Amino acid sequence: MSTERTLILLKPDAVQRSLRGEILRRIEAKGYGIVALAQRTATAEELSSHYAEHEGKPFYQPLVDYMGSAPLVAIVAEGEKVIEGFRSLAGATNPTSAAPGTIRGDLGREWDLPVIQNLVHGSDSPESAAREIAIWFPEVG
Ligand code: DAT
Ligand code: MG
């Protein structure tokens, strides 16, 4: 058994497009558990910490600005290999390249929305998951 936890964000576009239920359905249907879930507007501190690895990249500032512009939903999900598994459910970063069947592939719309609005974030390693869970849910640990 390698039960682990990951940090998922339903980005502001997912909230605005009323896709929370659709995305949560996919997470739960896969068999992952929801350990914590909260909708709120992220602070600049949370976002600069969360996206520290991207600081200096051209999309960093637009990304941080966008993520703080409206409410998002932060989630801690749990399950066997959930870190890699949720990344598979999410699909490739760019919605046009994301495979059909994935969240970004089925629901992402790059023709009228920028890549930044690709619906979800998921931790990419056990180290990122621990770091990100501590940012969004310090009480969960
Ligand atoms: P992912 O969210 O698939 O882990 P990432 O960590 O490389 O992707 O980038 C974080 C977010 O930044 C991504 O979800 C959308 C945005 N982003 C990444 N590359 C981008 C680019 N070339 N142009 C615009 N936004 C980009
Ligand atoms: Mg990433």
Automatic annotation (TrEMBL):
It is found in: Cytoplasm. ATP binds at K11, F59, R87, T93, R104, N118. Keywords: ATP-binding, Cytoplasm, Kinase, Magnesium, Metal-binding, Nucleotide metabolism, Nucleotide-binding, Phosphoprotein, Transferase. InterPro entries: NDK-like_dom (IPR034907), NDK-like_dom_sf (IPR036850), Nucleoside_diP_kinase (IPR001564), Nucleoside_diP_kinase_AS (IPR023005). Pfam families: NDK. It comes from the Bacteria. Its EC number is 2.7.4.6. The active site is at H121 (pros-phosphohistidine intermediate). The keyword Phosphoprotein applies. CDD domains: NDPk_I. Its cofactor is Mg(2+). It is an enzyme of class 2 (transferase). Residues 3-141 form the Nucleoside diphosphate kinase-like domain. SMART domains: NDK. It catalyses: a 2'-deoxyribonucleoside 5'-diphosphate + ATP = a 2'-deoxyribonucleoside 5'-triphosphate + ADP; a ribonucleoside 5'-diphosphate + ATP = a ribonucleoside 5'-triphosphate + ADP. Major role in the synthesis of nucleoside triphosphates other than ATP. The ATP gamma phosphate is transferred to the NDP beta phosphate via a ping-pong mechanism, using a phosphorylated active-site intermediate. Homotetramer. NCBIfam families: PRK00668.1 (NF001908). Belongs to the NDK family. This is Nucleoside diphosphate kinase. It comes from Brachybacterium huguangmaarense. The lineage of its organism: Bacteria, Bacillati, Actinomycetota, Actinomycetes, Micrococcales.
